[in-house]
Design goal:
Order of helices and strands: EHEEHH
Largest sheet: 3 strands, antiparallel
Number of helices: 3
CATH topology: Alpha-Beta Plaits
CATH architecture: 2-Layer Sandwich
Radius of gyration: 15 Å
Strand order of the largest sheet: 1-3-2
C-alpha cells in the first residue's frame, strides 16, 4: 500500500503491528506515483508500505489499515507468499495468531 507521508505510513504500520494483524512492516520512499483518480491523471509523492501477515489475518489487517488511512480508497493489495525461509514464515504466523481469551 502507499501513504501520503512518512508520518502517516508510520502511523498505519504502528496500528497494524500493535494490533498483531501484521508481524512486521517496512516503509520505502518517497516514490513517485502516477494514477487516474476522479477522471484525471494524478501525480504524487508517496511512501510505499509492505506488511507481512497471513491469509487468515488479511481481512483484519485491511480493517485496521482502512481505519488508520487518510485515503478514501487506499491501495491495499495482497500478494501471496509462494515460499521462503520456513522459520521466518512460521514467525509471521506466530506473531499474527489470534490469542484465545484464556491465554
Amino acid at each position: 500500500m502507499t501513504a501520503s507521508s512518512r508520518e502517516e505510513a508510520q502511523s498505519i504500520i504502528d496500528a497494524a503491528v500493535e494490533s498483531r494483524t501484521a508481524a512486521c512492516a517496512q516503509i520505502s520512499g518517497p516514490i513517485s506515483s502516477t494514477y487516474w483518480w476522479q477522471g484525471e491523471i494524478q501525480r504524487d509523492e508517496e511512501f510505499l508500505i509492505l506488511m507481512k501477515t497471513t491469509k487468515e489475518r488479511l481481512d483484519d489487517l485491511v480493517e485496521v489499515v482502512r481505519s488508520a488511512h487518510s485515503y478514501d480508497t487506499p491501495e491495499i493489495v495482497a500478494v501471496p507468499i509462494e515460499g521462503g525461509l520456513a522459520d521466518y514464515l512460521n514467525w509471521i504466523t506466530e506473531e499474527t495468531a489470534v490469542s484465545s481469551p484464556d491465554a
